[in-house]
Amino acid sequence: MDRRLTMVTTIGVAAITLLVFRAFAPAPFPNPVPKEILPVRAIDQRIQEMRFEFNVQIFYRFDPALFFPPKWRNRPYFGKGKQISESDLDRAVAVCKQFLSEHPKPVIQKNLTHIFLLGDLEFNGLQYGGTYIQSAIYVMSDGLAKGYTVDFLRSMCHAEFSSILFRNYPFPSDEWSQLNPKDFRYGNSGAEFLRQDNVRGTSDELQSNGFLIKYSQSTLEDDFNVMTEWLFAKPAELESVAERFEVIRKKREIAIRFYQSIDPNYHF
Fold it and tell me: Is the CB of residue 204 less than 8 Å from the CB of residue 241?
C-alpha cells in the first residue's frame, strides 16, 4: 500500500475506494506538538492513556508543518490536509485503540510511534484515505455518510501498518509472486490505479487468480495490504473466499506465517 497513500472515493451512497500509493521515500516524521498548545480535554486524556499503554502518540490538531515532512508539502506532491471534525475524531480515536489492541504490544512498541488523524488528505489534487512513513501512519476520516465507518477506519489502520511491517521484516516475496499467473506482472505503484473505475471491485476470475480485489494487482505490497485488511477486519469473508480459491488460501497462509514470524502471539 514506494509507498502508499490510500485514496478514498465515494461509489454509490457510501462505498469507499481504498488505495494505498507508495510513491514517497522515507523521510523524518515531525516532532511532537508542544505541550503548551494542548489543553486538557477528555479526548486528550484517552490519547494520553493510549500513549502510556502502547507508546504511540496520536496527533489530531492539524498543522501542515507538524504533520507533513517538507518533501510532501512541495513539488511534486503538494500535500494538503484539514482538521478532523469532533465527531470523526471520537470515532477515529476509538478505532485506534481497537487497532492497537489487535497486535501484540511488543510489535506495536517496536514498529509504530505516531498516528496522525486528519479530516482530509490530498496529494496532487487527489484525495487519499491514508498513508504511512517510517514508523507513522496517517488516517483520514470525513463522516459516516461518506463511508468512514468504524470497520473502514480499522481496515485502513491495519493496511497502513502492514506496510511498515512489510518493510521492517523479511517478507517471502518470491513465494508470494510464484502463486500469481505466469504472465502476470504487478504495476509500479498504486498511483497507476487511482483513476481506474471500481478498483475495490472483485470477481470470481480475479479471486481464482489470487487477487481479492482489482487493486490487489497494483503492487505486491498492495496485494499483501489487501490480504492483511481482510485477515484482520473481514476474517470470515476471507476464510470463505479461501475455501473456494486455492491461491487465495495459499496467500492467506503466507500472510499468517509472516505475522507469526514477527511474533508468535499473533492468532488468526
Answer: no
At 27, list the grid cell. Answer: 523521510
Backbone angles phi, psi at 51, to 5 degrees: -65, -40
pTM attached to this predicted model: 0.84
3-class SS of residue 18: coil
Average pLDDT over every residue of 73-100: 93
* Dist. CA 158–CA 166, nearest whole Å: 12
Asked whether 37 and 63 are in contact (CB, 8 A), the reply is no
Average pLDDT over residues 240-249: 98
235-244 and 246-262 helices, crossing angle to 10°: 130
CB of 145 within 8 A of CB of 166? no
Domain regions of the chain by residue span: 5-168, 173-262
Phi, psi of 142 (to 5 degrees): -135, 45
116 DSSP β-pair partners = 59, 138
